[in-house]
Amino acid sequence: MEATNQEVATLVEKISGLHAAISKLPSLSPSTEVDALFTELVATCVPWSPVEVTKLSPEAQEMREDLIRLCSTAEGHLEAHYSDILAASNNPLDDLHRFPYYENYVNLSNLEHGLLASHAAAAPARVAFIGSGPLPLSSLFLTTNHLRGTRFDNYDQCGIANGRARRLVGAVANEDVRGRMVFHTADVADLGTAELGAYDVVFLAALVGVASGEKAEAIAHLGRHMAHGAALMVRSAHGARAFLYPVVELDDVRRRGFEVLAVHHPTGDEVFNSFIVARKIPHTEI
Description:
Order of helices and strands: HHHHEHEHHEHEHEHEE
CATH architecture: 3-Layer(aba) Sandwich
CATH topology: Rossmann fold
């Protein structure tokens, strides 16, 4: 136990130092210094760790929440940078590998589709991806590699991010892919049953609701408005990766009218999230 406590203390101390260094950066846009610090942060958080972030001190909890916010901002800048680069390509689908975390997105989409398919009787007709951002790689991989007859409605509350995503997908040579990728500028809290009830599957991106409690509120809203029987794919975090992404508690999913079907935590060096597969069930006490 003492060794475990020391391991956690050493980890938190290192991450706190990286948080301090990142907080001092004049900009979180891609640069040699930004890339080096976030590369070190990711390398620190990806290996398995016994840390349980819910048991950290209030000071460490506050540092973690701010670090997730910084990660969200930096990821947005990174995706915007590469979205602009890829949109200028003759065919963006041929150049997606230029994005630094390309392989991780490929592996993530393979895993998510595999688990989704194992719990669904048929391929979904319509999918909503909430928090798609300026570089909608998850939707693109699922559209092109797995769900070739599915319409993807991508939602982001940032109009500038959506503008970049539309421009990128508009440059794709494949007319079928272009036609099945639609973008909407909206906050999930503003989507009602008329919108959310139309989808067979709803994906909730990792960095939707980075502030404390926001992700649980988003899940509660989905529980009120998704169609019964529809699938929910929620990205979460486990262990030290919870310093990079918000954690979704299974009870927050179950209490909001969902049956949890599967949970996956990455065990290797993949730089991606945990994820939860759930199904909307009738529920009257949301």
